[in-house]
Amino acid sequence: MTCPALLSWNEIHARLPHIFPEGSDNREHSIWEIAAKTIFVMLYAGAVEGSDHWIRPDQVTRMTDEQARQTDDAARQAWAAASIKPSKADVPGRWYAVNTRESIRDDTIRYALIQNSAVIERPGLATTSPAGRYALQADFAGLLEPDLEEATFHARVTAWQEKHLTAGALARLAIVRAGAASGGDYELVTFPNGETRRMTPGASTDISKAVIEVFAPKFLQKPGVISLSESGNKVVARDDDLAKAIKLKIPADKSLPDIVLVDLGPSHPLLIFVEVVHTDGPVNQARKTSLLEIAEGAGFPPQHVAFVTAFLDRGGSQFRKTANSLAWGSYAWFASEPDNLIVFSDKPLPIEGS
Fold this sequence. Notes:
The chain is an alpha+beta fold. Helices cover 39% and strands 16% of the residues. The protein folds into two domains: 9-165, Arc Repressor Mutant, subunit A (Orthogonal Bundle), CATH 1.10.10; 187-344, Trna Endonuclease, Chain: A, domain 1. It has a seven-stranded mixed β-sheet, sandwiched between helices. The relative contact order is 0.10.
């Protein structure tokens, strides 16, 4: 057999963030070093769709820098044949410890590369079989040809994404890309009543805009915006007339969240405090307590107050960094998945089928 052309694992690593940009499913495990080395081993062993060659996760652990430098077909074929055989022999300089093969299989291959259509699984193979099981999807392997010009590479990536990523993933990519591409002197935000406000462009503004234009009409019966702030606590809009109409009194010296919404649909208006997270500042337990004090002092009991932390994307680092601090009794919402809410319930809820 003629082995496929081979990039170094470092070069593969450099291409992965372009193939799996912000918004991709399980992006972290699709672009990290382990993913690059796993893909390298598949290419090294000729495990590409249509070749009938497959690898096992433990072969990734058994690769070494010295072996990776031996790139002629004979050396690659000999290593593939030898490394597929179960062995307890020590491998000096191996890339990973023996006990990491399950993590490579689950975190990187199954839940990232297969989920993102970069890797395929051998059909009909028994779970307990020691045979090779995984190979690169053929079109994905085409993105890793060594001599691709930059324009050709990006054109192929776009075509591959449109063909192989899920509709949900493509929708998230479109939203994240739209935010990354925003520019100019200001970004225009349209309120539920049709009024508009200008905000300084940036990631936080992209999320705020989505909260007001998408979240509010989707999850509230009759939404209104009481206040909107941006970085540096600059107040973009404050509707004192609306606040007065619902008998809401907010002291000027109190630190409000990024957005204060109200739902005028229920018989008793519902107050919604929204924190927009791009770098920090979620609704954690301490923040929830302080906001409840503001709400109760303004005449809103807890049962008529809700708390939302808004993020750009569920796969982004901002959510991963703050998820364990989000307050019970609050919600998390993602601009890239606007139809869904994560509920951090502080009381038992019945489990429902999907």
